[in-house]
Write the structure tokens for this entry.
Amino acid sequence: MKDDGVEEPVPHYVSREPFDPDDEVALTPEQEKYYMAGQWRLMWWKLRRHKVAVVAGIFLLLLYLIAVFAEFVAPYELQHRNSRTLFAPPQAVHLFHEGKFVGPFTYRYKSRFDLENAQWIHTPDTRRVDRVRFLCSGGYKGSEYKFWGLIKGDVHLFCPAGGRATIYLLGTDRLGRDVFSRIIHGSRISLSIGLIGIILSFVLGIAIGGVAGFYGGWVDNIIQRIIEVLKSFPRLPLWMALGAAMPVKWSPILAYFGITLVLALLDWPGLARAVRSKLLALREEDFAVAANLMGASTKRVIGRHLVPSFASHLIASASLAIPEMILAETALSFLGLGLRSPITSWGVLLNEAQNIEVVALYPWLMAPMIPVILTVLAFNFLGDGLRDAADPYS
């Protein structure tokens, strides 16, 4: 603006180069890689930027690897008992003895029963140094096992020195069984029950929700009323009722699949509604109408065209539903209505911590709640990252 108040015209620059509508704008290799990437690759790129979700995913992968190789990771066999160390507290792992570096070792316990307080007393004997061995084979009671119940072995990731030496990282229970080893063995049941349960739940949810969303009308109305009835029941009392209905005489395998089926049957309504809402929005899209006009069956349209278009959201939903199933199994087993001994899961182990007197005297019996908390948090963090990554263009 000039001093006299007259506005100056804004200069406008126009390219005098001839315009060619067929001329394409050159893209850099990075831009071309991004624009040509598929949905799953975009989802992976965005998930990698979510550091907490990546750490949670690595932690969960490590947990499942430990569950697969539980016999190798645990220093003791599942049912191994030591009558000399009942209710033994956790043993500390030391590196130095009398000022000298020795390497990882533990002090052997001297045990006695206090008749006045009715309590086991275990004190470390600082004269007995028991070195911790790694990738060791045999040499002590409780080292033998059958890998997945099929292959005999006695090789462990770490183990005590042998003889009467012990290594109880999380103490022992009322029968002298190593709590750490039992937590490792119990992870196989607690972690797998969530995966198997969510697979069954997804099969039911996708099938029933897909039918409701694709057909609509009276089919959708009937399915929605059934879902509303199921969701109207309080979840925990219904879990307890169905868990108590399972026969006590069932074998461990039947009990395992029975509780898995109970959790799956109560989890599918939420997924079915999510699938229904997606299919209602997608069934009128051009690609779905084209597949239908070309003679594709309803099963193929749903399974081949509609469900894959929002599969990333289903994966995110699954990662958030698995911890709920793990918590449900833990709660039912803790109350004595889920899995029972001789099956070992984190909930079964926590069942021994119901007695407040035992917890007050031997608090390490509550150690199984630590992996439950960490696993649920890891699944929730991973689920949040997957949910954000499911919309890679946001």
